[in-house]
Amino acid sequence: SLNSNNTEEPFRISLYKMFLFITISDAIKSGTLNLKHSYRYRAFNNYLIDSTEYANTKEIQLERHKLMAIKDFDAVLEELRGSLSSTYRKTSTNITKGRNEYFHLKADGSFIVTTPKLEKSDEIEGLHAYLPKEKFIPLIEVLRLIDRHALFSAKFHHHSHTKSYKAPKHNALYASIIGYGCNISIAKMAKISKGITMGDIDHIRTWYLSNDMLQEANDAIIELTETLGIPKLFRNNQERNHTASDGQKFNTSVESLNSGHSFKYFGLGRGVSRYTFSDESGRLFYTTVINANEREAAYVIDGLMHQEVVQSDIHSTDTFGYSEVVFALTHLLKLVFAPRIKNFKEQQLYAFEPRKLYKEYGYVLLPVKQINTAVIEEQWDQILRMVITIKERRTTVTQLLKRLTSYSRKHKLYQALREFGRIIKTRFLLNYIDDVVFRQQIEKQLNKVESANKFSKAVFFGNSGEYFYATKEEQDIASNALRLIQNSIICWNYLYVSNLLAKEKDEETRDKIINTLKNGSIVHWQHINFYGEYDFTERQIEGDEFDIDAIKRFSIEKYLQKEEKSL
Questions:
Q1: pLDDT average per 10 residues of sequence, the chain (567 residues)
Q2: Based on the number of CB atoms within 10 Å of its own CB, is 332 exposed (0-12), middle (13-18) or buried (19 or more)?
Q3: Where are the domains of the chain?
């Protein structure tokens, strides 16, 4: 190489290596370069069900997963074409005839849609009026009682799966769950507990705790809750279950590859986001800890499909949980996706027909662009292959979406899913604008999951509410232990109120309690003692720990004189 004076300089190998490594890193992330033996950076097709297996079993798989309705692209497109057209007509007709009183058109052509808050009766007292007031219920007592009925401790097996190993000691298991779930730490939990040793708790942590077992334990509590009658009072529609998910930011006090920077939430520090799923009755059925910089939308479908206990019919998120690809996949998986999109009036509407046709109809809401059906049809078989892969749980949806979106946005499958998602999103937006009850229902369910996040802050009080676990696995263990505590308290509340109703002989009082439940929330924790108890019982002190006479005789003067001389 030549410098400005045309004199030769030696080739800088280190600089070449740096640019080479940067180029390789960018190529791996973008999908230009794939790593055969990697989990995160293989070619996208390697994540999907094997092409030969798919070709041979396609019909069987579609039948097994009840997906035959989406096999024929023309039939799917025809149904959506008619559905979208009728939704445009219905929404626009209600606006022009003044039936949509919450839609306000501005002079510049933009619009505002308001959503009135649900009114609550002034006569309704909070559920806390019926929960224990004479004493605080110790957390350990809650876990013991729920375990007695749900048998969640039976879900914890020795990692070796050897029959010779016994079930975990219950007290040590509860202590480990509280240590993780309340963010106290296992070591500190052992020091502040009586009746168990550090060895007992550490044995549980090493040989019995895993995220799969904690998920099964949570499922057992959720199943117990489902057997009770009163959770049904919280269902807006008994025929379907409305779920929601939301993220919550937490600082990390240790270096972690799973954490990220966000000045808004952490200043100069780093943190993670705990993404939690809840249903209408307050049951928390999934949680995962992700990098604070990651988009939550990638995790929505995994949370809905991770377990079999809570079946979601309609799911809501905030803006961070939405993408057009998620709209596409949830529809194909027979889920209704209903997010609350911030500034949704700025969202673009699409249609199968040209914009001028909708102008001729006199519609207020006009599409900005036509749907490109050709790109969807070209990739329809690949879309079906991806949906079957998800249903078969060959890999996580998160991994599929991360790898797919890491490619150029010109990737044909990505384009097809996005284009298909625009159809579903447009239909949702039109219904959202037209139906005030639908908007209120979405808002109500998101408020419930936000309430669950406040609940988690109260439980996760140790270490100033900061994660001090470096690995994602242990962060997830702490979050699932926290969720187990929350589900136990929610189940305890249900049992307590159910017992109250069963014993109440006055019909008017019983109706009042039920009315309170229907218009309130089961998520209450003020009657639970998370912090242990102070022991003020008189006891004989055998000897003073401090030698006061020796302390008084000790002089610090000569050390001060030495310090002055050195200065």
A1: 57 82 76 74 86 95 95 97 97 94 85 82 65 91 96 91 75 95 93 89 92 96 94 89 95 93 89 96 96 90 88 92 93 94 83 95 93 97 96 91 76 93 96 95 93 95 94 96 98 94 92 88 93 75 73 78 67
A2: buried
A3: 64-101+236-459, 113-234+471-567
